[in-house]
Structure formats: structure tokens, C-alpha cells
Amino acid sequence: MIKEVMQDAREHMEKTIEALHVDLRAVRTGRASPALVERIQVEYYGVPTALNQLAGVTVPEPRLLVIRPWDRSTIGIIEKAILKSDLGMTPTNDGQVIRLTVPQLTDERRHSLTRLVAKRVEEGRVSARNMRRDAVEMLRDLEKEKIIDEDQMYDGREQVQKLTDDFIKQIDEIGKAKEAEILEG
Fold it and tell me: Which structural domains are found in the chain, ordered by start?
């Protein structure tokens, strides 16, 4: 039973790490990356559609994104979706492709992005701690139901704490790496 609780906690914490990676990939670092636009939703025939389903996104230069729509008739709606997004970049369109030039980050913008990263990292830590709390509650319930004894419950709590510490350490390392990436620009 303890193994099942541990496995469940591990799976949830791994999902937290994956979600943090996805969140941080979308944070602009002054370098072009297809991840910057992958979350943009385009209104395509009345249906919100992910940009990467309507176009190919390439990075021919370190600070340039080229968006090549599969269907040229969608170039206008893709351009509007980019303008409406919170990217803060203005697309240029030559009728064939859309080009997005990633501007240099100002010091002020770098610091606001590092604060955003710190906030996301803290949300990841809180999520891991919530999972620890849930796992410990499950262990207590198992003890109350006499499925495990008190010693097993305490051993399980120690294992859950160690697992949580390991995942929080990973979360912190991910955050430090992203902050360094933003500050080096």
C-alpha cells in the first residue's frame, strides 16, 4: 500500500515538473524559439486552433521566427492572433510567410521575467508540497483503517518527505537555469 501511495505522489510530482517546463518554455529570453508561439490560439472557421496546427514555425536566425502557414488564406488570421497575444511583437507578412523579430530584452524586462519565473517556480513548489500533504493523509487513513501500522506510516511519511525534497530541488534547479538564460540574454 505504501508503494502505491509513493507511486501516486511521484507521478503527480513528475506532472508538476512537466507543467513547469511547458510554462517556462513560453517565457521569452531574447532568443527565437518555436515555443514562444506554440500556445497562440487562432480563430480558424470559428474554432480556436493552435498555431502549430495551421503553420510550420522555423528559426532561421537566433532572433527570427518564420511562420509558414499550410494554407496561405490563413495568413491574415494568424497575424491577427499574434497581434492579440501577449507576445509584444509585431509580425511582418509578405503574403507567403510571417516573420517575427525577437527584440533584445531590456534590463527592466529581464528582471520582470525573472520575477515571473520565480513565481512559476514557487507555484511548482507549492504543488509538490500539496502532493506531499495528500500522500501523508492517505498514509494516515491507511493507519486508521488498520491496513498499515504506526511504524509503517512514519516510514512512509519519511519516504514521502524525501521524495518531495528531491522534486523541490529539481524545481529550483529548473528555475535557476531559466533565470540564468534570461539574464545572459
Answer: 2-26+106-184 (1.10.132.20), 34-101 (3.30.1360.40)
Q: Tell me the three cell numbers of residue 32.
A: 527565437
**Could you give the C-alpha distances from 122 to 25, 93, 126, 138, in angstroms and in order?**
16, 39, 6, 24
- Give 132-137's long-range contacts (Cβ < 8 A, gap of 24+): 132/9, 132/160, 132/161, 132/163, 132/164, 134/9, 134/12, 135/5, 135/6, 135/8, 135/9, 135/160, 136/160
Could you read off the pLDDT of 90-113 as tens digits, one per residue? 899 998 999 998 878 788 878 888
Element (H, E) at 49: strand 47-50
Through-space distance between the first and last CA atoms of the chain, rounded to whole angstroms: 48
pTM value is 0.69
**Element (H or E) spanning 159, and its range?**
helix 150-184
| 131 and 142 Cβ atoms separated by less than 8 Å | no
